[in-house]
Amino acid sequence: MAQRTHIQKIRNIGIIAHIDAGKTTLTERVLFYTGKTHKIGEVHDGQAVMDWMPEEQERGITITSAVTTCYWREHEIHIIDTPGHVDFTMEVERSLRVLDGAVGVFCAVGGVEPQSETVWHQADKYRVPKMAFVNKMDRLGADFWNVVDQMKERLGAHPLVLTLPYGAEEDFQGVFDVVRGTWIAWDEASQGMHFEERPVPEDRREEVARARESLLEALSEVDDAILERYLGEEEIPEADIHAAVRRACIGLKGVPVFCGSALRNKGVQPVLDGVVRYLPSPVDIPPVKGEDPKTGAEVERPPRDKAPLAALAFKVQMDQGRKLTYVRVYSGMLKAGGEFLNPGKGIRERAARLLLMHANKRERVQEAGAGSIVGVMGLKETTTGDTLCDPEHPVLLEPIDFYKPVISVA
Ligand code: GDP
User: Fold this and answer.
1) Which residue spans traverse the membrane (predicted)?
2) Known binder of ligand: residue 130?
3) Cα atoms in the 13 Å half-sphere on the side-chain side of 351
C-alpha cells in the first residue's frame, strides 16, 4: 500500500469558474502533468489523460467523480469538483465547505463574469484562500491586465501577479516567471511536457523587471516583513518572496495570479507549483467547529490523526449501482471496516471500503487520516451534510447553511 502523505503535503482544492472559462481543460492538463509525474499512464502525445479515459473523451467529459486525487512535487492534491453553473449554488456551497483552497479560472477575453463573481464571493464567505488563472491568452481579444483590473474592481481582490504573458492572441508564446525573472519556454519536442527556463528576451526585460517591482510593492502593502526590506532596498531572495505570497494568500490578503492557455498547454505548470507553494494544507486553516450533541457546547476538532474522528459527508453518488459517499475527514482516522456514529440521524454506520479516486483508476486504502478526502462504500443511511464521528466523542459539525447569492444582472 502506498505510504500515507503527511498532512502538510495535502491540498484540498476546488477549481471555480464561470461556465466555459476552461475549468475542464485546465483540470485535464493538471491530470496530464501529474499523471505523467507518477507514471500512471503512458504518454504518447498531449492527449494523455484522455488516452486513459476513452469513454469520457467520446462524451466530452473527463472527470465524473466528485473528487480526483493526483500528486505534484510530493504533494497529494485532491481536486474537488465544484459546479460552474449558478443553478447549482447549493452544491457549490457544499463543496466550498470541504476544500481548503481554490483556483479561480477566468477567460482572458470574457474577464470576470457575474457567475464567477457569485462563486468567488461564496468562497470569500467560507474564507477560502484563492489563486487565479487567467486562461485563453491565445484567444483573439485576450487582455491579461484588463482581467487583473476586474479582479480588483469586481472581486475586491488584491492581485499578486506571478506570471506574465509573453505575447497574446495568435502570438501567445508562453509565460514569464515574475519572481525568478525567467521565460518559461514551451518545449515543442515534448508537447509542453517539459519546459525550458530561458533568459527573458532582451526587449521584454524591462517589462518583467517592472512586474517584479510591482509584485514586491503589492506584497509590501500586506506584509510588514517585505515592506521593511522593500523600503530598505534590500535584495529579497526568491524563497522569502514565495513565503510572503503564501502568507498573503492564506491570510486572505492577496490572490496569486497566473496566466496562460490551458488548451495550448502553456502556463499550467506554474499554477500547479502555486497550489503546493501558496495554498494551505489542512493544518494551515482554523480547526473545524461543531457542537456536542448531548450538551450543545461548542467544540473544536484539531486536524490530527490521533484525535477522535470527525468527518463530513459532502456528496453521495451512485457508482456502478452502489452508493459512494464522499467524506472529508477533519480529525482522527477513518478506517475501512470501522464503525462510527452518525449523530444527526442517531445511527451507527460501517465503512465497507475506502477509495481514493484517481483520474484513471481507484485505489483501495485501509484508512484515511485527518485532512483526507475519500470515497466510502457501504454507508447505508448517511446523506449529504451528515457528520460521522467517534461514538465515544460525539460531535455534530456545523450544518451546511444555504447562502443566498447576490447575483448582479449583466
Ligand atoms: P468549462 O465549461 O469551464 O469546463 O470550460 P471547458 O474547459 O469545457 O472549455 C470551454 C471551451 O473553451 C472549450 O471549447 C475549450 O476547448 C475552450 N478552451 C479552453 N481553454 C482554452 C484556451 O486556453 N484557449 C482557447 N482558445 N480555448 C480554450
Assistant:
1) none
2) no
3) 28
